[in-house]
# Entry
Amino acid sequence: MLKLLLAQGMLGLNNGVFYAMMSLGLAVIFGLLNVVNFAHGALYMLGAFVALILYSYVGLWFGVSGFHIGFWPALILTPIIVGGFGILIERFLLRWLYKFDPIYSLLLTFGVTLVLQGLFVNIFSASGTPYPGMPDALKGVVNLGFMMFPKFRLFAIVFSLLVCAVVWYVIERTKVGALLRAGTENPELVKAFGVNVPLMVTLTFGFGTGLAGLAGVLAAPIYSVSPLMGADLIIIIFAVVVIGGMGSIMGAVVSGIALGLIEGVTKVFYAPAANTVIFFLMVIVLLVRPSGLFGREG
Amino acid sequence: MTKPAQVHQPLSEAGEFAEGIPHEKLARSRAAQTVLWVLLIAAVLLAPAVLYPVFVMQLLCFALFACAFNLLIGFTGLLSFGHAAFFGGAAYICGHVVKVWGLPPLVGILCGGVVAAALGYVVGSLAIRRQGIYFAMITLALAQIVYFLALQLPFTGGENGLQGIPRGTLFGLDLNDPLSMYYFVAAIFLAGFLIIYRTIHSPFGQVLQAIRENEPRARSLGYNVDRFKLIAFVLSASLAGVAGSTKAIVFQFASLTDAHWQMSGEVILMTLIGGMGTIFGPVVGSVVIITLQHYLADIGSWVQVVIGAIFIVSVLLFRRGIVGELARMLKISSV
# Structure
């Protein structure tokens, strides 16, 4: 029983770090832009597809068969590509909506989600494609004492935790982060200090979406790459940020990981509840502490 | 990270009551409204003569769904991203009541509406604990519970949905006859539409619009804002449930699609494109979207791309929607 718990806990932790990275991006964007990015799940999907395309299709497009851009370069390239795509969305679409109710931004990104999902369903099939580019160094399993755990998943967990830690450090402890937090509190004042706030907004959106793309690359070798992989995930992420409170970076990370773990453990006790347990926890949090576990009143 | 209070433009342009409407505009609006009512009723009564009845019945169900949704987004300023739960959830309840318990379709539809109202009470009272964008996220997450219930509960038929719901009879009238069924659906739609119209133009509706325009001020005037929001939510949910139940009887089928979040998105689009906060907007919007889906059915999954693109364009350029823009051009009130 304990072994089973630990095993499901590890798988849950794996999901949890993805939740953490996704809600981290969502929280950073919301902090500065006051925009809830519905397309976050679709951009995660885009990240996985970019990794797949880099490996399987780029060679074909340039007529060099057998040419692959593997996992390691993809780990760097994909967040840049997805983040760049995010920057385009911000500059050409979202920017026009800042002066209106934030609901419109949510609806706009919802539209973007439909377009992205629809495109990928048409170009690739709705069923998944496995990612063939898992690096040799990460194939196989490691013995954790209580279970044999896939090396790649362990790598994904450690790497994601590292990314979260770095993001936390940058935002909470560096000059850039201080500007970002100041921009969240009072953009007008920060503008008055000579900071290019619109540029900061664009880059922040790019950064947040880049994180979603990164989560997508890390997920590609674990789950099969499918156009709908981000569709249900985004709703879980929404529940995570409602539980954690969108105001804090730490809150997003901690609640993401914790909820992944809880979801995993629920599979052991009552499997059918596993995909709804997060939503029920959200209900409890709303009843007990409506502003979220790490959120401030207001 | 607390934010300074931000002043946004209100969700809809319909809030003209507070400013006082010039007499001439009022008269013109009244006339336009009468014309539109006559047109609507005539269209509903005569449509099956020119169009395929099942198609029009589908239109009417979605139009009622969108009107119910509009009561929240357009007149209370609440974006529910989970209305598919009431629409699709009630369809299952109605289907079960009619198919397994063998009760008449009217009872099934009422049961669907009542269960949707109860569900709306639960979802609403949780969601109004948070404002604005959080409200949308919470309704979306709660609706996902209903979706998973529809997928996993024993009586719903899982992925296949609930099939073979009999249409039955209404006061001895056989509803398998397309025209009898049609006028049954038309009556439900008109009744629902009238309820929404009366609600909006009642003192209660005026308070809802006050909340939409300025929630703190409505509160400072002594209105129990949460209670008003909750009542509006329950009313909207129950009418959405009636729409979903009716659709289940028409198509003799309750499906997972109707409970999925994408359906919640579609009803938002119908309302947005027709005009949030207008009386006739959601009807126009659902006609546009359902017709589009009907004619684009050949291009398969590209429909989703088209719908998404329409979403983006209308959010960026036509936030007033078709009816809202028309009303502005003709200088009449759209409420």
